Amino acid sequence: MTTTRSGKKDAVSKLGYHPIDRILIASCAMSRVLIIVGLAVVVVGILWPWLVRIGLGRLPGDILIERENFSIYIPITTGLLFSILLSAMLWLLGR
Predict the structure, then answer these.
(1) In sequence order, what are the residues at sequence separation of 6 or more whose Cβ sits closer than 8 angstroms to the Cβ of residue 90?
(2) For a 10 Å CB count at each end of the chain, is N or C smaller?
(3) pTM over 0.70
(4) What gap in Å lies between CA 22 and CA 26, rounded to an integer?
(5) Please, which residues have CB within 8 angstroms of residue 61's CB and are 6 or more apart in sequence?
(6) What's the whole-number average pLDDT of the chain?
């Protein structure tokens, strides 16, 4: 326990961080993750014309349903591939 200017006791965790400090630390970590995800989206957006040429976006396992009035595309395999790549990038950055 620490004492504030008013003389009241202030709660401090076992690690020595005030609860407000832990919120700020978590907020900074979340900000970092969102920036990394945003940069990854920008990079994929910039590289998309070349990625489509090599077949990314029409991989085996991606579902395309076309009817007279509509079409739906469900990129299951492409989504899994991006998920694996993003997880690996975040894991490497977290080390």
Answers:
(1) 33, 36
(2) C
(3) no
(4) 6
(5) 76, 77, 80
(6) 79
